[in-house]
Each structure stands twice: as C-alpha cells, then as structure tokens.
Write a structure and sequence with these properties.
The chain has helices at about 5-40, 45-75, 80-100, 105, 110-135, 145-175, 175-185, 185-205, 210-215, 225-230, 235-265, 270-295, 300-320, 325-340, 340-355, 360-375, 380-390, 395-415, 425-445. It is built from 19 helices and no strands. It is an all-alpha fold.
C-alpha cells in the first residue's frame, strides 16, 4: 500500500472515531452539568446527579451487545459497511437527544426517551471502536502497527476535546441559566454536520486486507460470537482485564472530576472543562509516539509502564486537587489524563487486535473492550460518587479504587503473548496455503 493510501485509511479511522466519541462524551459531560436538573429532577441534588450518572452507565452495559451485533456484521460482511452503519446510528441518536423536551415539559417520558437514545448510542459505539481499530491495524505494515493503531485511539481524546471545547465555548458566551435552558443542546444538534462529514470520508475506503483474506479463504465465521467462546475465550478475558485500567481512571479524570471539582472543591465549570481539554490535547499528541515506542520495545512493556504509573499516581492526583488552585487542578489532570494514561490507551487497540484470529477479530476486540468498559468505565463516575457519599466526601476510597483497577489490568496483561513486528494474519495465511495445496493435489489426481 502506498503512503497516500495509508494516509487515507488512518484519516478515515481517526475522523470517524473522533465523531463517534464526540457524540458519546457529550452525554457524559452534560449529564454532570445539566441532566440532573432537566431530566432527572430530584429534591436531593446528589440523588439527581447519581441518577444522571446511572443513565450514563447504562449505555456501557449495552455496549457488549453492540459488540456482538456489529462484530457479527464486521466478521461476516466487512469492516467498512459496519463502520458506516455505526456512525449513522450514533449520529441520529445524538441529534434526537438535542431535540428532546425536558422533564418539566413532558414528565417521566423525558428521562425514558433519553435513556432509550443513550442505549442506542451504546449499541453504536459498541460496534464502532472495534471497526475503527481494525481499519488502521489490518492495513498497517507489521513494523508500524502500534503507530497506526494509535490513531483510532486518538479519536477518543479528540472526541472528548471537541465535546469539552464546544461546551466550554457555550458556557462562556451564555449565562448559566441559558446554558441549562437551551445552550447544552447546540453541540448535540450540530453533530449532524460532523456525521455527514465522517460518512463522506469513509465512503472512499476499501475493505481491509485481513477481511479480504478471510473471505477469499472461505473461512468466514458463521457465528463469530459462538466461535470466539469456543476457541479464544481466554483472549476475551485478557482483553476485559486489560481494559479496566484504561477506562475507569479515564472517566475519573475526565467525567467525575466535572462534578467533584465544582461541588466539592469550588472550581468553576469552565476551569474544570479547560483543564480536561488541555490534558486531552497533550495525550492526543503523545499517542502516536507511544504507539511507535510499542513497535520498538513491545506492546506489553509500554502498557505496563503506564499501568504502574497509574497505580503510583492515584493518591498524588487527589493531593494535587486538594490544593484547590487552578494551577494544581491543571497539573493533576495533565499528569493523569494527559501523560500517565497515554501509553495505556495508545497500545490497547493494537494489542487486542494481535491476540485474535482474523475471522473472529472484530467480535473478539469489540467484546473484550466493551465488557471491560461496562465493568469499569460506565460505572466509574457512579462508583466514585457513591464512595464519596458513603465515606463523608473522603477521596481515599476513590484513590484505592483507581489502584485496584491498575492491579487487575497488570495481572491480565501478563498473559499476553508479545506479537509486535510479527505477521498479523498467520492463521489466515496458513489456511490459504493449505487450501491451495488441496486444490493442486485434486488437480493432479
């Protein structure tokens, strides 16, 4: 593949992933700022916030189902068609959220419809991530898989940056009352333009080489979900465990901090959002570099480096926040979300892709990633808030929670077999060679 074609592939992977995560993260941030007032009205503000976070968490539990559904399509029909479908689904759900009447206008129907749309988002993102990663990884040369595999991961932080940036801009130009009344809706509705752009970018991409090989070999899985648990259930468990430290601290540093920083530490919405936005810029810049390091030193070493860093940083993060100055808030967020988290997330997608066979790879990476996200990601802000309530606003249990996720992931990744700089599709190549030999033998006979 030429450099121009490869550039087109990683741009398509990055742009589509960024738009999907922009849509997804809008909900998380606005849930912390607004939804407890306009959709989950409650006498106690903390209960309203926990209800909003619960709705945020629900989508994570349906994401594995999205991984099964779209993994089936991706492993049977192709990566490209699946990615077009997931992007469309996410876009429609997000726009409808922006147009939804409030609880005060239509009563209990408002939170019910909102949760339904959030579940649709969960289905979409459940299939999107795996396809975006495979689009980059399955096209990449073996000595640069880590580098190119980091690009769809950059979509996560770019999506968060765009969401935080849009909300920061709106909160600075409208009053707090106007933001709650209608300002929060603007980025939801405007995301329709981004979706159209993303579909246009992906239109010109061909199917990945790995899927073409599987299809040509006649080894396409009939029921990928069944096959993955017959042949590679251990790999699914490894992926689930490896995902824990990548997702829980991320939502602590990027979502939980919005409510914790404003209600407990006295920061303004703008200060917290700006700190998150700056941190996401830094980690986005670092990701390709970290992916490149994994091509040189191996995925496991880079991942373990970041995970040990996360384990050691749990308490210092809160110590910095407790200084209650914007400078220490910025430092704490940049160190956690911007630097320590970067090596973990940069290599995750590539490492997951390398442990699954091509014929069930879409299902495998999607299931492992999304189950891990459901277990530790969507529940992280809810668990952290509940721990604060239970322990009189002490951050100590939340810090221990971050450390626990690090230990779980360290144990899981020890079982990973390093495959950097090796052929990605050895299984497929062997299958094709065997079939060619069979055909030649039949012809001679």
């Amino acid at each position: 593949m030429s450099k121009g074609q490869m550039r087109k592939v990683w741009i398509a992977s990055l742009v589509g992933s960024s738009i999907e995560w922009f849509d997804y993260f809008l909900y998380g941030t606005v849930a912390a700022l607004v939804f407890n007032q306009v959709f989950f009205a409650a006498t106690d503000a903390t209960i309203g916030l926990m209800l909003a976070y619960a709705s945020f968490a629900l989508a994570f539990f349906i994401r594995p189902l999205g991984g099964v559904i779209f993994g089936y399509i991706g492993d049977r029909i192709g990566r490209k068609k699946t990615l077009v479908l997931t992007l469309t689904i996410m876009g429609v759900a997000t726009v409808l959220m922006g147009l939804l009447p409030t609880y005060q206008a239509i009563g209990v129907a408002a939170p019910i419809i909102l949760i339904t749309l959030r579940l649709v988002q969960g289905l979409g993102i459940g299939g999107e991530w795996g396809g975006s990663v495979l689009l980059a990884v399955e096209y990449a040369p073996k000595n640069k898989r880590g580098f190119y595999g980091a690009f769809p991961q950059m979509g996560v932080t770019i999506g968060m940056f765009l969401g935080s940036g849009a909300l920061t801009f709106i909160t600075t130009v409208v009053s707090p009352e106007a933001f709650v009344a209608w300002g929060w809706r603007i980025p939801f509705v405007a995301s329709a333009l981004l979706v159209i752009f993303g579909l246009w970018i992906r239109k010109g991409i061909d199917e990945t080489p790995s899927f073409k090989k599987v299809k040509a070999s006649g080894e396409t899985a009939k029921l990928p979900f069944v096959d993955i648990f017959k042949t590679q259930w251990k790999e699914v468990l490894i992926a689930v465990g490896g995902k824990v430290v990548e997702t829980a601290p991320f939502y602590i540093f990027g979502t939980f901090i919005v409510s914790y920083g404003t209600t407990q530490l006295g920061f303004t919405n703008t200060q917290v959002l700006v700190s998150v936005m700056i941190a996401t810029i830094i980690t986005t810049i670092l990701m390709p570099f970290m992916g490149g390091l994994s091509d040189k030193f191996g995925r496991k070493k880079v991942y373990i480096f970041g995970t040990v860093g996360m384990l050691l940083y749990a308490f210092p993060y809160f110590w910095l926040l407790e200084q209650r100055t914007f400078a220490t808030l910025l430092i704490a967020t940049i160190l956690g979300l911007g630097i320590i988290w970067a090596p973990i997330t940069a290599v995750l997608g590539t490492m997951f892709s390398e442990i699954f066979d091509a014929k069930v790879r879409y299902t495998g990476v999607s299931l492992g990633y999304q189950i891990g996200a459901a277990v530790a990601g969507g529940t992280a802000p809810l668990i952290a808030t509940a721990l604060l309530v239970q322990f009189n606003n002490s951050y100590v249990p939340v810090a221990i929670y971050i450390m626990l996720t690090s230990v779980i992931s360290l144990i899981a990744v020890l079982a990973v077999k390093e495959k950097s700089n090796q052929e990605l599709d050895e299984f497929v190549n062997e299958t094709q060679e065997n079939q060619v030999e069979k055909r030649e033998t039949t012809t001679v006979n």
